[in-house]
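Please decode residue identities from the backbone states below.
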């Protein structure tokens, strides 16, 4: 769906959609820990990022495609992908209060895989961000095209990278489906 569609959901609707699509595309029941992580992700995106955008920025972002739990060809799953005309953002949410370099390597590997996956990438730049939802300080670490930051810094990082609008997607994709 789009970011605008995500923002229109309440907690119950989001939980129902993610649970249904998780079972359909991932083919397993979502664990309690996974459900808590998804609520953290939804809460961060909706209330700590997009609802803090100015009206002009929000209008542009609402049109962007967003995908949750995209399954890569190697069966790894990314938390969130945001698609613009020129860029794909790979967001990996961690329920941690401290940053770990291994998380940067994980997201860099996702970026590398997506960049080589031509039916998804379509020539776009791929940028990865590890988001720590329990981190109190405003942290930012860079490693090439990959960043790690607190949830408080995510809005700033997304705006800094300046996306342009794209079109529709769905909330969860299997590796055999196309995100368009």
């Amino acid at each position: 769906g789009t970011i605008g569609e995500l923002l229109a959901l309440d907690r119950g609707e989001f939980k129902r959609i993610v649970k249904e699509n998780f079972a359909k595309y991932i083919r397993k029941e979502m664990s309690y820990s996974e459900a808590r992580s998804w609520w953290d992700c939804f809460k961060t995106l909706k209330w700590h990022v997009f609802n803090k955008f100015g009206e002009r920025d929000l209008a542009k972002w609402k049109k962007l495609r967003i995908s949750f739990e995209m399954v890569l060809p190697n069966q790894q799953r990314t938390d969130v992908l945001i698609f613009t005309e020129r860029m794909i953002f790979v967001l990996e949410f961690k329920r941690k209060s401290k940053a770990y370099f291994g998380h940067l390597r994980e997201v860099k590997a996702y970026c590398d895989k997506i960049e080589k996956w031509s039916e998804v990438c379509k020539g776009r730049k791929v940028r990865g961000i590890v988001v720590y939802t329990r981190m109190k300080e405003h942290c930012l670490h860079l490693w090439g095209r990959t960043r790690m930051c607190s949830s408080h810094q995510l809005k700033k990082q997304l705006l800094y990278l300046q996306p342009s609008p794209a079109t529709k997607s769905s909330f969860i994709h299997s590796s055999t489906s196309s995100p368009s």
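Observation: Helices lie at 3-8, 11-26, 32-49, 55-62, 101-116, 118-121, 151-160.
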